[in-house]
Amino acid sequence: MKSVYLLVFFVIAFGCLRAQDTIIQLKPVEISTSKSEIVRLAPHYSQIDMDEIALQTSSKEIPGIIAQIPGTHSVIGKGIGDTEFKIRGFDISNIQLLINDIPESAIDAGWVYWSNFTGIEDFTQNIFLTKGVSNTHPFSKAGGTISVHLIDASVQKFTRFSSSYSNLVGNKLNFVHSSGELKNGFAWAVGGTYRFGSAYKDETWFKGGNYFFNASKILGAKNKIHITIIGSPQSHGQIQYYPDSLMNNAGLAYNPNWGYLNGDPKQSSINFYHRTLAQIKLQTEFNKRNNLKTVLNFSSGDGGATASFGNSLPTSSNGLQIDFDAAVAANQANYDSINGGNNARYFLGNYVHKEASTFLFSEFNHSISDSARLSLGIHAYSSLYIKDFGRVNDLLGADFQAYPGEPAVRSEGDKIWYDSKSSFHGAGLSGTWVKTTRWMEYTASGSLTQSSNSNTDLFNIPDSAVERSDMKWFTSYNIKSAVQRRLNKDLRIYFTAGYQHKRPPIKYLGKTVIDNTTPETFISAEIGFRKNFESSFKGELHGDVYLISYNDQTFTKTYFDPSTMSDFSFSVQGLNSRYIGAELEFKADWYQKFNGLVSLSWTQVTWLNDIESIVADKAGNVLDTIVLNARGLISGEQPQLSAYVSGMYTFLDHFQISAGMRYCGINYSWFNVLSYAGSADAVQSWRYPDYWLADIGIAYKTKLRNKVGMRISAQVHNLLNQSFISESLDGWNHDQNSAWVIYGYGRCLTAGVALEF
């Protein structure tokens, strides 16, 4: 079942700009990284510190900031909060987001919705990115880990104001103040961000921001306590895929999700959510060899998305936009004699999600000797509640909504289609041992997790009949080892190998709970090197090749049962895929006047097998057998070839000019592998065109009176106004005519000013 694959290193082309955006960190921030963090991230990780983050926050969120790292992919332009991000071909469901060491990926399906963390980059002290299964975290994922550490007020004293304008992602105001550590050992920081205006795509407006608070206090000689609160209330208009043929008349800013009602623009797809995180961290330094870190996290969220329910909304005469006036007229002409009023043929509804959860993380670090370290961790989480339901939002001029012949009517605010409550609980143990000699470093780590979930269906069920499903338990674990060999003081080579056994995603489709208990597994191997330069310039060269085998993947498919004339869902299991790739990165700084970055990567994701899946009802009766043909197909999760080149030159002490280019090549449209179920042969999805993007930027920085630093900057994105497809869904003919796409942004401008003291 397992195979050994030959890794072929092949990369070519150039890449893109490390954008110099509006916010400045005039004073370099010294970031201290604990031994425990180094243990977790060894042997290789990418680190982005506050000064570099601050340069990019006016036009980018965290996915865009870290997309310069080889093996990653992100294209901004859909609007704030909806940026896609991938690592080595894995989408965000297989990438873990940690905020101050606590997992913040969705507790049920594992997704990260960046709109829930809008503006968090403005209060980020550093970001670590690791690829592959984490060394120690029991809730790690195969794609990698994004570890975000928020501002620690005790690290630095500063005050920052910034303002920016952008027709790419909208406008932004930001304020943050950090006191630094005061004489009594107390420190505090507070900040806020407000984002507003329209992004490049039509009606992808954004309104909202975030708030931030951090306080710390030294308690005696050995203890330090931290409190952190951050929240992101927001709403924004969204975009969806559309047929490529529409672009002949639509233009690059096209968005099919809106139209006019009584002469005013109206969005049919709106995301709205308010997520809050509150953390208490206690650090104890027992002695030079032993320390303990404990974090208690509480998170809550309330919101959802607005979308068209029922029939598809009518479109205007040119077929490009929604005709809300026609929808209202049709509703008001649709008289329902049974219920005595106008029945909504067209209406908007809300998909609502509410949740609250707690997470406990405690890590003990022990220096066995000067050359050996041991870390032991305890992790536990519990969902206080998770609620999902559909709700009628806008009847578009009708009196109510009811299905033909159905006496039950629904008014605005009434629940529709589904209403469920679920719970998730879990606990895990982890450990890492690191041994260092003069020329070698050995790392061994592992984790074990026990998790459970249950669901309660509440839709149209009397309170007396409500029953919670049985609690489903699952055990998962991962192991990983690494060896580093130091060839000389500047050159290291390393090898890692890992295995992960995990619970498949839990799926909820309306009222139906898909109980997937068959484990998914990952087998990974990676070899790489790291070369430092300390001669005429400072720099680093890093490269690696990797192989990941993803086995026994689980999907959910809907089947129509003719005997009951209804749909039900079942699991399709047993699909295997292979991830192979190579990466190369070079960073250099010449005399603090010029710094540059070259990033190259090649990745390929291939489905390895065909399967037969048995379709059975809840009673276990076999209804059908479905054949799924996928062997040899290349998944379209991200470009196979990508490159990123940037440079920044400082002149006349106050001016900076930057330029760069991104290349994305061998782009295959994404497809649902289940679409090949039945008699369909394995046909490769449509390969959409390669593309280049060029950016330029200029900035002026100086110091005003009283040591106030000022920076004025401007950037032009997609300088050549290239027309390019940023995302594509494969169509029935696997060609351009049947594909559904989203075009990227055209030429855009970002400009702003920042003050810091």
Structure, described:
The protein is mainly β and 757 residues long. It has one domain (35-243, 254-323, 340-398, 409-756): TonB-dependent receptor, beta-barrel domain (Maltoporin, Chain A, Beta Barrel). It has 5 helices and 43 strands. The strands form 9 sheets. The chain has a 22-stranded antiparallel beta barrel. Strands 1-6-7-4-5 form a 5-stranded mixed beta sheet. It has a 3-stranded antiparallel beta sheet with strand order 13-42-41, with no helix packed on it. The chain is globular. The relative contact order is 0.14. Residues 1-41 and 508-514 have low confidence and may be disordered.
CATH 4th-level superfamily? TonB-dependent receptor, beta-barrel domain
What would the principal axes of the Cα set say about the shape?
globular
Number of domains: 1
The CATH architecture classification is Beta Barrel
Strand content: over 45%
Radius of gyration: 27 Å
Largest sheet: 22 strands, antiparallel, barrel
Q: Stretches where pLDDT falls below 50 for ≥5 residues?
A: 1-41, 508-514
| Derived structural class | mainly beta
Helix content: under 10%
**Mean pLDDT score:** 86
Number of strands: 43
How many helices? 5
**CATH fold group:** Maltoporin, Chain A
